[in-house]
Amino acid sequence: METEAGEDTALENEYHGTDYILDRQDASMDGETGAGQIREKLPNGRDQSLWRTLDAGIPLQPKKVLEDMPGGFFVYHADGDEEILYANSALIRIYGCDSLDEFRRLTANSFRGMVHPDDLDAVEQSIREQIAQSVYDLDYVEYRIIRKDGEIRWLDDYGHFIRSDLSGDVFYVFVIDVTDKKIRQMEERKAFLREKRQKENQIEKYSEEMALINREYMRRIETIEGLSIDYESIFYADLDADSLTPYRMSYRVDPPVKSECPLAEFEKIHDRFIQNWVHAEDRGLLEKSVRPDVLRRKLAEEKSFYVNYRIVENGRVKYQQLRVVDVGKESRGSQIVLGYRNVDQEMIREMERKKVLEGALKKAEAAIEAKNAFLSNMSHDIRTPMNAIIGFTALAKKYIHDAEKADEYLNQIEISNNQLLLILMDVLELTKLEAGGGHVAEEPCCLSDLVEKVRGDLQETAEKKEISFLVDLSGMMHDDVLSDGTKIGDVLMRLADNAIKYTNPGGRVTVSVTEKENIMTDYALYQFVVEDNGIGISEEFMGHIFEPFEREKNTTLGGVLGSGLGLVIAKNIVDAMGGSIEVESACGRGSRFTVSLSLHRQNARGRTGMSSDGQKAPKEPPVTQKILLVEDNEINQEIETELLESDGFVVDTAENGQVAVDMIRQSRPGTYGLILMDIQMPVMDGYPAARAIRQLEDTRLAEVPIIALSANALEEDKKRAMESGMDAHMAKPLNTQLLEKMVREILRQ
Questions:
Q1: Minimal CA–CA distance to 501: which of 452, 536, 545?
Q2: Residues of the chain with pLDDT > 70: what percent?
Q3: Starting at the edge strand that comes first in sequence, how are the strands of the sheet with 152-164 ordered?
Q4: DSSP string covering 543-608, please?
């Protein structure tokens, strides 16, 4: 017996440090041994029954112990699918199942299937954390389950993790159904929350009563809180109680003021702040302002007062303000609020506001005066050509059978129309430039060609006034550059046209270009000079020459038609190109305008000579291909058709872009040699119509030249037309001579 007892004690000691194996072969809940039996792997290799005589020699069989447990017990793999290796009857009953098989189907025979899906992640995370902290203690989790009948129950889970080389990592778990306890807890919590709400309601009711009783006091507290938003330091002081409490403190208050600080101590801290930060000239004023006797005296006279002072921070002077407000009920100046705030920007704005307002007022008055003068001049300048158009139209009708007179009147109508168009285009161009729409292109262009074109366009006008129009390109070595040739030509045209307008008959206008050589880069400074010996500009007006709506003499006094915007537009264009424009002028001696631009030279190629001699081109052979005119406006369609047919062209018409696309698609290659495309039309406008034509399968049809005819005449409109696949852009109202020339050139090609 002593030997047996010794062996039992030894085995019992080994029991605490051994690995346990759950034999799952031929699982059965009914056998005394088999799948439900837990086996013990002893360290010395002996395989014996786990269950031994634990107390008074009474043998306890494994199944009976597990089945008679008051709670559920189960064993499952710690890895993989967390397969359940064993579950006792109590656990099966907890899940509302009648058999082990039914339990396995309900839970998919895994721990994951046992736990409510909403609780699973948190449960496994908690188990991992507890195991990481201790491998000896039981881990505890609480979670919900879903029984077979759908009822949700709560379980307390006490598990232990064991790592075994033979059976793998497993969990031994004891669970207890704590649903009733959980329900009691929830009921207790509900009761607690009800009681809490009741107390909160009582407190709220009490607070409302207190608010009614102390409304004035609360209002003053809110005032203090409101001040704390804008003020960097705020203090509440009770002079009778000799205490001061900080609500907010700036970093400049050092050391910080403590709650219920005596006033004498605050004065010391305040004096240090004054010495460290306040401007020397303002120290005495601020120091005196916080003395209790001064505070009482000033607040006896008024409810609040303020003191402006300066501080010096990082060598810069800033403006600050101390505001003191009496917030006491009896207005005795004992309960006060002191607020310190930065008024630097306010003071600067206040000092500058007058200057700004005065300057703005002067500018506004000048702008109104200039605009009124401009509108008056524009009204006159617009009505003058309109009146001429109306008058000469009536005369042309009256003398319709007198070819000579009718032709003269029609010429005058055309001149007046061009004058009116020029005024409108100038106004639109200035509006675009001021709105930032002055896009500057960088494309190959020939400067000598630009200058010769200006001379060609203005030569007739100069000859009519008997003015010598000279061009000097001798100072230019390279005339091929990368720049916006259209804008350069526009500037030169405006300056030269102005020079001709304001030069008396017999005078002289010269346009010259000089290149300042720069051997270090591909860029060179080009100076375009437009000089005349005309009437000149007065010294008084020189400072306003490039201002919008400014004219030295209006149309009536000067006798020169125009909007007076030419120089303004020229200046805006030159600025957009990064250049400069300078003026030298004297009354009676003429003017000299110098435009300086830095331009990118092309391949350093020298100037090759002048343009053509101006002789008329030989007569073109007749054109056989048709023109497709796409225009929705019936009047414009009739006029343009008549003009083209009178020049010998054959014209078909389409009322919108979709009709035009269909006509081109259905035509034979070579039928149409040119498409004149309006932009704004119903159904399909010109841009998508051009793109659709360019995408036709038959390349011979897709490559028919397209010219945009549009009232949209800005640079952006021209660029958009090119991007849509069009070959050229012509602005309305049409220049019939230019249109005929362009059409013939395209059809000839």
A1: 536
A2: 77
A3: 84-87, 72-77, 168-177, 152-164, 139-146
A4: GGTTSTT--SS-HHHH---S-S-HHHHHHHHHHHTT-EEEEEEETTTEEEEEEEEEEEESTTPPP-
Decide: 649 and 624 in contact? Cβ < 8 Å.
no
In this predicted structure, which of 21-35, 105-119, 156-170, 546-560 has the lowest mean pLDDT?
21-35
Number of H helices, E strands in the chain: 23, 25
Note whether 536 and 588 are within 8 A (CB): yes
Contact, 95 vs 107, CB < 8 A? yes
Burial of 481 (0-12, 13-18, 19+ CB in 10 A): buried
53 pLDDT tier (thresholds 50, 70, 90): very low
> Closest by alpha carbon to 451, among 417, 418, 482, 490?
490
Give the per-residue pLDDT at 176.
93
What Å distances lie between residue 473 and 22, 450, 476, 590, CA to CA?
A: 108, 11, 6, 21
Other CB atoms within a 10 A radius of the CB of residue 672 amount to 20
* Structure tokens that stand for 443 in this block: 């494309």
∠481-487-488 over CA atoms, to 5°? 55
Residue 425 identity: M
Rounded CA gap, 259 and 275, in Å? 23
Q: What is the pLDDT of residue 241?
A: 82
Confidence of residue 678 (pLDDT cuts 50, 70, 90): very high
- Strands 480-483 and 590-601, bridge-based pairing: antiparallel
33 or 88, greater pLDDT: 88
Per the listing, tokens 């007065």 go with 538
The C-alpha angle 659, 663, 668, rounded to 5 degrees, equals: 175
- Long-range contacts made by residues 141-146, C-beta under 8 angstroms, separation at least 24? 142/178, 143/115, 143/116, 143/119, 144/115, 144/116, 144/118, 144/119, 145/94, 145/95, 145/114, 145/115, 145/116, 146/116
d(CA 232, CA 263): 20
Q: How far apart are CA 455 and CA 449, in angstroms?
A: 10
CA distance linking residue 379 with residue 385, whole number of Å:
11
Q: What is the 3-state secondary structure (H, E, C) of 312-330?
A: EECCEEEEEEEEEEECCCC
Can you list the positions of beta strands (E) in 78-216? 84-87, 139-146, 152-164, 168-177
**Which residue type is seen at 322?**
L
Which tokens sit at 384? Answer: 């003058």
State the Cα–Cα distance between residues 558 and 654, nearest whole angstrom: 48
- CA 237 to chain CA centroid, Å, is 48
- What per-residue confidence (pLDDT) applies to 344? 78
Measured CA to CA, the distance from residue 292 to residue 297 in angstroms comes to 9
Cα separation of 24 and 74, whole Å? Answer: 13
Q: Which helix (H) or strand (E) segment is 312 a member of?
A: strand 304-313
d(CA 114, CA 84): 10
Beta bridge partners of 399: none
The single residue listed with the structure tokens 């008056």 is: 376
Query: Which residues, other chains included, contact 435 with Cβ-Cβ below 8 Å and sequence gap of 6+?
Result: none
Q: Which carries the bigger pLDDT value, residue 59 or residue 115?
A: 115
* Largest pairwise CA distance in the chain: 157
CA gap 372, 390 in Å, rounded = 26
Cα pseudo-dihedral 97, 98, 100, 106, rounded to 10? -30
- What is the pLDDT at residue 614? 39
pLDDT at 174: 94
Backbone angles phi, psi at 603, to 5 degrees: 55, 15
CA–CA dist 352, 337 (Å, integer): 31
The token pair at 251 is 């970093």
